[in-house]
Amino acid sequence: MTDIAAIGQRIRHFRTQRGFTLDTLGERLGMTPSHLSLLETGKRDAKLTTLTQLAKELDVDLAELLDEAPPTKRAGLERDWSRVASTTLFRGMGLPSPKVTKTLPDDWLEVTTGLFSDIVRRESVALATPEEARRANTEQRRDMRALDNYLPELETLAEDLVRTSGHTTGALTHREVAVMAESLGFSIVHVGDLPRSARSVTDYENGRIYLPPASIPGGHGLRSMALQAMAHLLLKHPVPTSYREFLRQRLEINYFAAACLMPLTHAVTFLQTAKKNKDLAVEDFRDAFGVTHEAAALRFTNLATSHLDLHVHFLRVGDDGAVYKAYENDGLALPEDVHGATEGQVVCRRWSAREAFARTNRTTEYYQYTDTPEGTFWESTQIGTSTADEFSITIGAAFDDAKWFRGRETTMRRKSTCPDMECCKKPDQEMRQKWAGKAWTSARLQAHVLSPLQAGTFPGVDDVELFEFLERHESPDRSV
Fold first, then answer.
1. DSSP three-state, residue 201
2. Which of 1, 79, 205, 421 sits in a 20 to 30 Å window from 214, CA-based?
3. Number of alpha carbons in the 13 Å side-chain half-sphere of residue 363
4. Burial label, 477 (beta-carbon count in 10 A; 0-12, 13-18, 19+)
5. Does 357 or 103 have the greater pLDDT score?
6. How do residues 4-40 score in pLDDT, each as one tens digit?
7. Is the distance from CB of 405 to CB of 280 less than 8 angstroms?
């Protein structure tokens, strides 16, 4: 497509280079100066016959006139600025758009367009497209693998805060969580009108942590939400400027909340005892501390290598086989795309994470040995249900470490040769021949795959909803 602004810029360049005014050139062409000015500013498209006439009068080849490259550095700067000023992002800033005149310095144009380009770059990062999210997830997963998924500084911070509540053993109560918040100068307030895009809101001005109503189903998760909000306070997190920073902060607050709900000393004692008895089980760990199966499994990965001398893997897999979360330091080859991302990839149908969906009784854990190209792994899988679908939570370890876990005596065994396509990603030859060219299907589009996070102050949170919420609840009386 022809860039009429670029052509107009070249017309003006050659006109001034030849010493013609708009009046002079217009008279030679039989064209009004105002019409010629519209051509030069790119506000009107020129016909080929007009361009041919212009090239002749300006003594240049038509191809040279049609070349869309800026004729000078200054022209390039002016073109860049024109594009900046016409963007929705710039107009949305509410800033005036200075008229570019001959007296406007080149440096001003260069610096201003450069600053705007960086704003666009930051905005693009904040949007966190699926590609950006996968890249950041992959980097973070590799970072945590190098640390054996263990962050000792957060362990210490969590134990210190739990100690302020007077907690001794068992599940951390809602009252103890409230006491922990009070020790930081905050009260927990349950409201029914949180912004739809926010899980919690912390009001520094009035010292409040807003959470959903205490009566919501699965209310045990409210303890974790409150603790995550406290983590932001204790870790002095700045507003994230990139998706990678946002993701790191999210990891830290989740880790901190889990370390409070399953404190290091008590959790390690519990797990070491279970290992000594060769009876390690996520379900027991879960019940002892009153948390979800997923939370207990993830917490187990934090402590397994550093305190139990075990290398393990963790998977949360949807009922379609897609990976939502994954971690390993035991050698299991996770499915990855060409960039190393595992989120969104599909695990082998022979793995425990998918075999467990085929069971009629899903209330208990499913145990299985899986032979893979990297070796044999023992796995324990529990099925869970969200508001949208079912998912599986898997904890596994290499064959030699199965002796420490409950369920090691299982006779269930499957063989996986993935990523070999013949393993489970193709129907058998007989079915392929039977149905080839005889059927058609329409894929269900996953809207979230295409949708980036909303670009607010905090990625994914609607600023308007957030600040309207704070306005509604603002009051000098902190006891409200």
1. strand
2. 205
3. 1
4. exposed
5. 357
6. 777 888 888 888 888 889 898 888 888 898 888 888 8
7. yes
Domains by residue range for the chain, with CATH: 4-124 (1.10.260.40), 128-261+461-480 (no CATH), 262-426 (3.30.450)
From CA 381, how far away is CA 407, in angstroms rounded?
A: 11
Rounded to 5 degrees, φ, ψ at 53 are -65, -45
CA angle 463, 469, 470 (to 5 degrees): 95
* DSSP codes joined into one string, 141-172: HHHHHHTTT--HHHHHHHHHHHHHTT--SSSP
Residues 163/165/166/167 CA torsion (nearest 10 deg): -80
Angle (CA) 169-171-174 rounded to 5° is 120
Candidates 33, 31, 70, 69; CA nearest to 51 is 31
Q: For residues 82 and 97, is the Cβ–Cβ distance under 8 A?
A: no
Angle at 426 (CA atoms; ends 420, 429), nearest 5 degrees = 115
Quick one: tokens of 262? 């399953």
What is the end-to-end Cα distance of the chain in Å, rounded?
Answer: 62
Q: What are phi and psi of 475, to 5 degrees?
A: -165, 140
Q: How confident is the model at residue 2 (pLDDT cuts 50, 70, 90)?
A: low
Length reported for the chain: 480
CA 446 from centre of chain: 16
307: left (phi over 0), alpha (psi -120 to 50) or beta: alpha
Q: pTM, whole model, 2 decimals? A: 0.71
Which residues, other chains included, contact 67 with Cβ-Cβ below 8 Å and sequence gap of 6+?
Answer: 10
Q: Which two tokens stand for residue 165?
A: 């509540």
